[in-house]
Structures are given as C-alpha cells and as structure tokens.
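It would be a great kindness if you could assist me with a short task in structural biology. Thank you for your consideration; the sequence and its tokens are set out here.
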Amino acid sequence: MPAARASLKPVTVLFADIVASTALYVQRGDATAFALTAQCLGEVERHLVAGGGRIRKRLGDGLLATFESSTAALRAAQIARSALIDPDGTLVREGVRARFGITAGPAVDEADDIFGDVVNVAARLLALAGPDEIFLSGKVYEVLDQELRAGVRLIDQITLRNRPGAVLVYEYVGAEREATVSVAGKPRASTVALEIEHGARLFVIGPERPRLTIGRQASHDICVDHDAVSRTHAELQLREDRFVLVDRSTNGTYVHVDGGAVLRIVREELILAGAGRIVAGIEADPPIRFRVTAR
C-alpha cells in the first residue's frame, strides 16, 4: 500500500540555543559548563512552556519549540530573554548568552517532532542572530499586533543558505534604549549575480537559484567524470550578497583568478570575486569559468 500522505498544519517554530557553548566547555570545564547549559536551557524551556509553547526536542545546546501563534512565541521569547539577561542572575555573571529564531508557516506535525521548510528557516534565522537577539521572519512580523511591531526593526531581505528566494529578516529589540537605529528605508535587493559557464551551458547563481553543485556523479549540476574529482566535490552558494565556494573533496579545488593568484582550498570555503576558472581536482574540458556581475 502507498504511504499515507502527510498533512500540513500552520505552526510557529522557535529555535533557541546557547551562544558559543563549545568555548564555554573549553574555558569552564565539562562539569561547570554542563551545569550552566542545563540551567540556561531549563530557564528558557520554563518560560516557553508558560507562554504556550510545546518543546519538541532538545538539541545539545539548544531546543526546538512550537506555538499556535506568532504573538505567543515572541512574547515567550521576550520573557525568556529578559530572565536570562537579568543583571542579578547567575547566567549573566557567568557569561552564558542565548539567542532565538522564530518563523511561521505550514509544517508536518509528527508525534514529538516537526518537519518542513519552516523548521529550516527558523534554524537559519537562529544562526544569523547574535547573543541576546531575537530574529523573526516576515511571516511572523506580518501577524504581530501593533504593540509588538513597535519593538521590531527590519534587518534586511536575506537569502538564507541552501534556500531559494529571499526572506525578510527582522529583530525584536523591544524598548531597548541602546539599540542601533536602522537607517534602511526598504529591504535591499541583491545587486550581483554569479555566472558559471561550462561549455555551452550558463548557470546564474542568485536569489532564484542560490546553489550549484560540482562532482563526479551525473546528478550534479556540473559533472566532471574523472577519478581525481570526488563524487561530491564542491558547491557554490549565495549567502546574502556573497558567493561562496565550498570544497567537500579529497584533492581540493583550485581557483584561478584572471590576472591574479591561484588559490587552493581543501574542506574549506572561499568567497569568490572578479572572474576566473574553477578547477575541481583536475582541469575540466571544457573549463568551468566564473564571473561576478552587477545585475
């Protein structure tokens, strides 16, 4: 029998985690760091649940919760943050900081877990946030009441990693007097593109297509069939207004910049600029050429 088709339901997803938890373990030792981490996540969980949230899972130094409304999620995150940054609290004195990412949309709700693009977007928002920051997507901002909207500022329209299209990203600052004033009149659109030529084929990396893969397997966008090329060799990604070459290979990837240096990366990342050739293990025939252009 065919598998039952999963049904989607609207949900608000909140990710929270501890900033620089790895450094905390190195600096304070395992026992102390574990106790501080448990205390911080316990405090966050308590406030999220009190605000109507449902904890779906713990993720090492973080947790995932869902809410029935975006307003409830933001209010709960606001209260949790206030508790964590209390100047008289232990966590502030110990330098333990947390951050939050919130978005809303349809998802597959399965028992104790949640699946869908909404989870990926919330995780990306969390990664953008800094210590004590609460980042929201435009989907959340759209449904907030005026009181909460007054404490929100637009960050930008950002292309999130490995995801097509841009997302409006906001930060909830509340009534903080020291918050930086936003001078952006409107979201900026991406003004650059990365052109990749391989023989007669032209790929354009931008908001509509933020990712391109290179490797020996025929399933990749550019296939280079040679033993020196890894099955999954490299990837080109749009991150905000930057184009990043990510090497995932054994033999490395070379970038020959026109009129400039030859750079080699192995299991590293490189921001591309200008124009030149990308050599994945061995020079492809035809070559893989790149060019960053204005749109």
Remarks:
- The longest strand covers residues 98-110.
